[in-house]
Amino acid sequence: MTYDVIVVGAGHAGIEASLAASRMGARTLMLTLNLDHIGQMSCNPAIGGIGKGHLVREIDALGGEMGVAIDETGIQFRFLNTRKGPAVRARRAQADKAAYRARMKRVLESTPNLQIRQASIERLIVENRHVVGVESQIGETFMARSVVLTTGTFLKGLIHVGERNYPAGRAGDFAAMGLSEHLRELGFRIGRLKTGTCPRLDGRTIDYSELEVQPGDDPPPPFSFRTARIEQAQIPCHLTFTNAETHRIIRENIGRSPMYSGVIQSRGPRYCPSVEDKVMRFAGKERHQIFLEPEGRDTVEVYPNGLSTSLPFDVQLAMVRSIKGLERAEVMRPGYAIEYDFADPTQLNSSLETRLVAGLFFAGQINGTTGYEEAAAQGLIAGINAALSVRNEPALILGRDQAYIGVMIDDLVTRGIGGEPYRMFTSRAEYRLVLREDNADRRLMPIGERLGLVGAAASERLRRKSELVGAEIERLRAALVANSDENNAILRQSGSSPISQAVRAIELLRRPEISYAVALRMAGLEPILDFDQAAELEIEIKYDGYVRRQLEAVERFKRLEDTPIPNWVDFHAVQGLSTEARERLSRSRPRSLGQAARMPGITPAAVSLLAVHLKAGHGR
Amino acid sequence: MYVQDTIVAPATAPGQGAVAIVRLSGPRALAILDSLWKPLRSGIKPEPRKMVLGEIIDPATGAILDRAIAVRMPAPRTFTGEDVAELHCHGGMYLVRRILAAAMAAGARMAEPGEFTRRAFLNGRIDLTEAEAIADLVAARSEGALRLALGQMAGALSGKIAKLRDQLVSIRAHLEAEIDFADEDLDLPSRGEIASSIGRLADDVAILHQSFVVGRITREGARAVILGKPNVGKSSVLNLILGVERAIVTAVPGTTRDVIEDSIQLGPLQLVLQDTAGVRERADEVESIGISRTFSSLAEADLVLAVFDSARPLDAEDAMVIERCRGRSGVALLNKRDLPPVTSAENLRSAGLAMPIVPFSALRGEGLESLRTEIARLVEEMAAPGLASGVAISRERHRASLDRALKALSAAQESLRSAMPPEIVAVDVAAAADALGEITGEIHREDILDAIFREFCIGK
């Protein structure tokens, strides 16, 4: 039979791609190297964080699975950046890896239109530059109208521990050796990246008694707009530090690190360096923090976040045992570095479809990104667009003004990854004040609903939220805060100046240092908004002028963004363009003037020439 | 497929000269050169960027037009970024016209004014400030302007902006690190420290912003306005300084009803002198229009030359002139010292005049040297910072961008003072970066991440 969509890979990208496509009614086949490792977290046991938490909320608003799954199985939930403004607050949760995997496998197995098979895919079947199926290591063929590749670190994966190395997709899994060579034959530009992970410790051998405890928030904040409350008990993390002895061990053995001996040439992410990198590059820093994160409820394994390393095992052990609380720790799995192939994402359209082969989509680490959340977000979009392309419907392309997902995909396909694995940061989004965790539902749920991925109940909740926030603003406008000693004491405590006469609660809320909760307390009112609703209200009242300015900037951005570059445009025919600009534009075929302007090597002058060319309608 | 065409133009000034240069640029520049010109020693392949002697042959007739040197400069490392060819022939308008005609017959098009520079800009060989500098260089009216233009062309302004940009990237990196790496153990600067680095940056931007005046003076010359009550001899002073009969001089008060303007070279700078209608209390209709023009040119002037009559006592009209000189830079002339003195420098001082005073006689030409020295000193004082550093903005476009940058920076400082969160402060800092970017080029988000990773140990 011929499937509508085949998804190769069952990691975080593969899961969202398979679920989105099958939920949209496409007959979908998911192929994975190992059915027992669906939804595996190969690195740290956590989801979310600043920028990444934003992605999870957006995935959720579009009807994706990641948010619900972590809410159901997580072991600790926290808000980050609570002392900053509401625009950059983000959620982070510790995961139970095994429970998360089981939860994901259960959902996949119970989703209609979706089949799951274990197979190692070595080749694509391509006819007339259109993908028609895939072929496995043992010669099976699976036919489909579109294919999504989500291969993670498996393409020619090579694991390094000290002087030793061996091929693997991650520790304990085979690598996919043939596929990237095949992609090269098809004409794709393939590059190589490196990342690393920490050794895992036996929690029974850790002495927590002297270590700082990192508890979760109470109440635990859920990721999903669909989760009312997190019911399960939370487990704390602990904090310890490297010290002079740890650093001495690392420095004395640095020659045995494959990164420093020159065995590994490819670049790793600067924001996720190995501990040896931190010690060597920031020699002045006396200690580095290590978060001890449990890997689940039913396991003793502990992830020492901050201790990523590819030093030889004997050095890893000595290094671990030099750290406070870990003096008697046993290492259950060694840390390692892994090199893998990726395909330069500037070969993709904004829909994540490759320009070389129609019907072929790439999502996740194959595009040079890092992170479960980045992968899941791309998987979701690739799955949606694979299903849409089967129906001959226009692709879903989220703008930089609409979603972090839009920012990420636009960065990838327009500018590429710039040499290191790409991770989401809020600083990558130019319209950060309007792209928030609290309003992801407002921004994206209507799209999810239109695609059939979000139910009517969710959009009803969204409508009620708007009403509630509106009503609360009215209440704050009416409420008076009395000029009392008690209130002035609260103001002073918040670092705010006292009042000399009664004022409206809304006026006090305009002060950056006064929160919703504090303003209500002074007015003698009970809070009725939850955290996200309060964030929306505070943004609206405190930073109104800034939000308005950013919305105006969005309008300016849209003018260029909404000027499409039609298919008839021959960039070689644009008068005045440099040869380099012509070649770059012809290769990447930006879909709008705005996207062209963001391409590396395209000057504002070149954009003006292009605009003139479009206006004149040359070559039509 | 449409291809960028090949342009040709004489690169030397029109007229008789020892040598004339004809320049070609575009994809067919080298082919057209080959069709017009053959090396003297046949069979040799002329090397790029070497001057080779040969003959110019009219392809239509086969006639030898001239013996000339040719230089072949293949793309991309040329002025325009395209293939460029130059013919150095003997000077002479007729010969140059024949060569241009032959080049055009071979497929070249006559270049529009500034087209070579425009192509250089479009091909990314020069940035906008450098392109403007080339235009200024061509139009430079004085040595000072020349020096400023040369400085800008060499990238002095770009360099200065790049320095400001680096400061800005570092400030943004600190703000962004505080947001994006909140759970890292980073040694971040305090809000106060960020505020003071924004303050330092704003000071630097303000200095560049102020250099607009200097930039304009060096580019267009200093504007001096001659001010005084009727019939103190303003026009005579103008004529004397210019050394020509520029203004009509009569003994009738109020002869100059409009503003008369002319310029002279003064040291390294151009001085634009404006003679004005006299300042008087009661004037007829025409005269009062003239007087209001006097005041508006006074407002735009860099210098005031206030003229007083030493043979008459100071009156209400002189007092008006003194009032207008308050806080202005300039020189006072105590004219008509050929007549018996009535008013002295001390009288002017006690009437409130702060400017240097030069005794003068327009009739006899006395005091002219002191006046020139004094003006030169004042102009150079004004232009000194720009001339010394070689960096001054001279374009309205630059001033407007710096203006926006300054406003954004002060808004950012205000946000810091009122305890706004970092992402709000970052909005204004980003706006300042965009404004600076308008002058030379953008700041990409990658620059900020680079700065964060360079400075901080990220990755817990």
Describe the structure.
Chain A is globular. Chain A is an alpha+beta fold and 620 residues long. Chain A is built from 21 helices and 22 strands. Helices cover 36% and strands 18% of the residues of chain A. Among the domains of chain A are: 200-338, Elongation Factor Tu (Ef-tu), domain 3, CATH 2.40.30.260; 456-547, tRNA uridine 5-carboxymethylaminomethyl modification enzyme MnmG/GidA (Arc Repressor Mutant, subunit A, Orthogonal Bundle); 563-616, GidA associated domain, C-terminal subdomain (DNA polymerase, domain 1). In chain A, the strands form 5 sheets. In chain A, strands 1, 2, 6, 7, 8, 9 and 20 form a 7-stranded mixed β-sheet that branches. A 6-stranded antiparallel β-sheet of chain A has the order 14-15-16-17-13-18, with no helix packed on it. In chain A, strands 11-10-19-12 form a 4-stranded antiparallel β-sheet. By secondary structure, chain B is an alpha/beta fold. In chain B, 48% of the residues lie in helices and 17% in strands. In chain B, a hairpin with a 6-residue loop joins strand 4 (52-57) and strand 5. Chain B is flat. Chain B starts with 6 loop residues before the first strand and ends in a 5-residue tail after the last helix. The mean pLDDT of chain B is 80.
